[in-house]
Design brief:
- By secondary structure, the protein is α+β, with helices and mostly antiparallel strands.
- It has a single domain, classed as Alpha-Beta Plaits, CATH 3.30.70.100.
- α3 packs antiparallel against α4.
- The protein starts with a strand and ends with a helix.
Length: about 160
């Protein structure tokens, strides 16, 4: 089993309809390629772990590097692992109307994702940090700005 964890900036802030399109397209592609993992999106930043056989994971990562939604793609971690950490592929992002996404296979509300205290790989630990930050960013109207979230996240990895 092989994994890659990467972070990237979106080419612009994405609407809920654009996020829904990404969810539908990638859930199907990843299921067909036997890829599991988690894609997080918050404040214009993506972070994802991809798990599967090495060829499928690397091919998917190369497609992401060329994708219209991503720029500044940085591989944070990669390697072999004994087993899959995720049972399926999921996408998670904050939305004002989570009930409208509940019917879509692969969608997970950020607050529903439980990662263990002790993680099996450095990549999963990075996901935990990102997820905690995205939960803080639940909605811009709570006084947290997009710039503040991006700044905090990038400082974490410097």
């Amino acid at each position: 089993m092989y994994y890659i964890v990467y972070v990237s900036a979106s080419t612009r802030l994405l609407t809920e309809n654009e996020l829904k399109a990404i969810l539908i397209e990638n859930e199907l592609k990843n299921r067909q390629n036997d890829i599991t993992g988690l894609l997080l999106y918050s404040a214009g930043i993506f972070m994802q772990v991809l798990e599967g056989n090495r060829v499928s994971v690397e091919e998917t990562y190369q497609l992401i590097r060329k994708d219209i939604w991503h720029k500044d793609v940085i591989k944070l971690s990669e390697g072999n692992c004994w087993d899959r950490f995720f049972t399926d592929w999921y996408m998670s992002f904050n939305t004002r109307y989570p009930q409208s996404f509940a019917a879509y296979k692969g969608f997970a509300e950020p607050s529903s994702i439980l990662l263990p205290a002790k993680t099996p790989t450095p990549g999963i630990e990075l996901l935990k940090i990102f997820l905690e930050g995205s939960l803080l960013f639940n909605d811009v109207y709570k006084g947290v700005t997009v710039g503040a979230v991006r700044s905090k996240f990038y400082r974490t990895f410097q």
